[in-house]
Write a structure and sequence with these properties.
single chain, Rossmann fold, 2 domains, six-stranded parallel β-sheet, 12 helices
């Protein structure tokens, strides 16, 4: 099949929708390699709760190479900027080897950052500027930020002075520096599509299996290794709710399963909302019923 029509295959979908298995099967078909687009799988130690499922990276009797998993430890700040930079480094290496990148994930912001080529700058801290800003009252800081970025809607930047300082620091830097161009990504995007009741059942089954196979113990071990409970609140639903259970804020494993299951279902809906937003912004997503490999291959044949 000619690969000139697209230079990247993307398999996206909500949690528990079978996108990893489908992506691995397609990577085997295309002699490609997997690039994970998951905001938690970049962290070492987040294995069960993040759904790394590394045993799934096998197809046709061989291992399918994967990237962007286990990049950093939990002490490291890892943002969409860091993800985009790591992604394009791998992407260009694969393209140089004439190997098809197969992007698999459900973190909408990460996907959007590489598909639409967000322009980021690595902005160093400016101690002199921060000292100047520290002398200003909050209203003056707001005025200065809005003068630099009139279209700014990120109210979290104004929630505390440190965030405001950083937002102004970035805006000042952008006045005099231009981001490097990003590589051209021409994607063919496949999306896994399930009836809502079937996806709910898959979510419930997967949660049951994870709780039975060490999710709680994983969080206990990470906490014993020195990571504070507050860190888990920022690592997604599984880690947040299990840490609440271990702190006694959720009374029983049954309550944990019910509350966490409901939260994951809400999260899956938000993922779907993000993917539909991608379509409204111009991305074409070919929906694959029940993550069926035959249906996905039929789509590939149609664009060849």
């Amino acid at each position: 099949m000619p690969k000139e029509t697209f230079n990247t295959l993307v398999v996206l979908g909500p949690t528990a929708s079978g996108k990893t298995r489908l992506g691995v099967q397609l990577a085997a078909h295309l002699d490609g390699e997997i690039l994970s687009a998951d905001s938690r799988q970049v962290y070492r130690g987040l294995d069960i709760g993040s759904g790394k499922d590394l045993d799934e990276y096998q197809a046709d009797g061989r291992a399918i190479p994967y990237h962007l998993i286990d990049l950093v430890d939990l002490k490291t700040e890892f943002s969409v900027f860091h993800f985009q930079r790591a992604f394009f480094e791998v992407f260009e290496a694969l393209r140089a080897r004439k190997t098809m990148p197969v992007v698999v994930g459900g973190t909408g912001l990460y996907l959007d950052a590489v598909l639409r080529g967000y322009h980021f700058l690595e902005v160093p801290e400016n101690p002199a500027l921060r000292a100047e800003l520290d002398a200003l009252p909050g209203e003056a800081l707001l005025t200065r930020l809005l003068r630099l970025k009139p279209s700014s809607h990120n109210t979290t930047d104004l929630a505390d002075r440190a965030r405001t300082f950083r937002a102004i620091e970035i805006a000042e830097y952008e006045q005099h520096h231009t981001p490097e161009p990003t590589p051209e990504v021409r994607p063919l995007i496949l999306g896994t599509l399930w009836p809502r009741d079937e996806l709910r059942a898959r979510i419930a089954l997967r949660l049951k299996e994870r709780l039975e196979h060490g999710l709680i113990e994983e969080v206990e071990t990470l906490h014993a290794d020195g990571y504070p409970w507050e860190r888990f609140d920022l690592l997604g639903l599984e880690y947040r709710f299990v840490s609440q259970f271990l702190r006694g804020e959720i009374r029983s494993k049954n309550d944990l399963r019910q509350k966490l299951g409901a939260a994951i279902n809400q999260f899956a809906k938000r993922q779907d909302t993000w993917f539909r937003r991608m379509e409204r912004l111009g991305q074409t997503i070919h929906w694959v019923p029940r993550a069926d490999i035959a249906a996905a291959l039929h789509i590939l044949q149609g664009v060849s």
